[in-house]
Specification:
This is PPIC-type PPIASE domain-containing protein. This protein is an alpha+beta fold and 289 residues long. Helix content is 60%, strand content 9%.
Amino acid sequence: MSRRQLLVLVVAGLLALGSGGCATAAVSKVPDAAAIHAQLARQHLAAGRPLWALYSLREAVALAPGEPAYRRQLAGVLYDLGFADQAIAEMEQLLPLTGQQDFLLFELGTYRLAAGRIAAARQAFEAVVQLNPGFSLGYYYLAETLLRQGDYASAGRAAALAQRLGLPGFDMQRRLADLGIALPPQPWADDGGLIYLRRIRLTQAEQAHQLLQRLAQGERFEDLARAYGEAEEQRSGGYVGALVPSQLQPHLAARLQALRPFDSPQLIEQAGDWLLVQRIAPWQAPHRP
């Protein structure tokens, strides 16, 4: 028996005994040693032992270097312990495994910002809002980096877009006002004829109207999309992409084109479903071939 197999059996047995279960049954369900270390890390964190969790997650990453979840968890623990530079290094190794994803780039940006790497943080936040122009916190943190770099006009644009997306950012507005910077009335770039859209697809008219009312009362579209949307809507906070009008059903394209960016969300009935939609706009104009 190899050392790795022995580790799996021993730790699984300990976990089963500790939980009052049957060790034999637990062993049959053990995936691998890396997963065991990740499970131990979660238990250490729940028990308030972050340094022990750090050790377990380093072991998990060493055993399964191609598993993004372990590396992300490791980065989070490092950051919480104050090791921002190490957290950044882990995230920078993570991104090639996952490709460009808005929420991972956002986490990297916050780590870079905490470490004082302002230019690199700005780069990460700009990538976030390019991928997902409905990511309000991405705009807020982009405004922060731009403010620190002295690009006050662009900071005002970013803060205004965060506000349009439902994140007021009162402190950011105050700091900009102290510098004599007012939020621009139209902070977005030209959409090039595309329809940048966020959406929540619902099956019940009553629920759709309830959510529309909650939006009118100040709740954020992103939060409702994550709570009630379909899987992709939950992941993206409702952003479904930059749509080409000619590729949509004509009546739907006409309804969406009639909306101006950042008009109040609207309800559209389509094929028995209810679409809660809002047209938004990009940070930078789309590239045309």
